[in-house]
Amino acid sequence: MVVSLPFRTQRRSKSFLLDMEFNLDKLIRKDQFLEIGIGAIITYNKDKTYWALTHCGSIPDFHRRDSFIIKL
Q: Sign (positive/negative) of CA torsion 59, 64, 68, 69?
């Protein structure tokens, strides 16, 4: 079970960097494959924007399995 993920942040003059690294060997079996979707909800001045590699529906839904487009 994952309780939290280690990450680092770095503020730059015109950007913000979030870096995360973790060992998958501790999370899944070697014969198992992963389907991954990468997304984020960015809040700035109370406005929200939704970002992902793809949104397969008419509205952002980070739980839609068809939006998990990376396979490992």
A: negative
Range 15-21, long-range pairs (CB < 8 A, 24+ positions): none
How many Å apart are CA 49 and CA 24, to the nearest integer? 29
pTM: 0.60
pLDDT for residue 1: 67
CB environment 25-55: b (16+ within 10 A), e (fewer)? eeeeeeeeeeeebebeeeeeeeeeeeebeeb
In the chain, the DSSP E strands lie at 7-11, 16-20, 35-36, 39-44, 47-52, 70-71
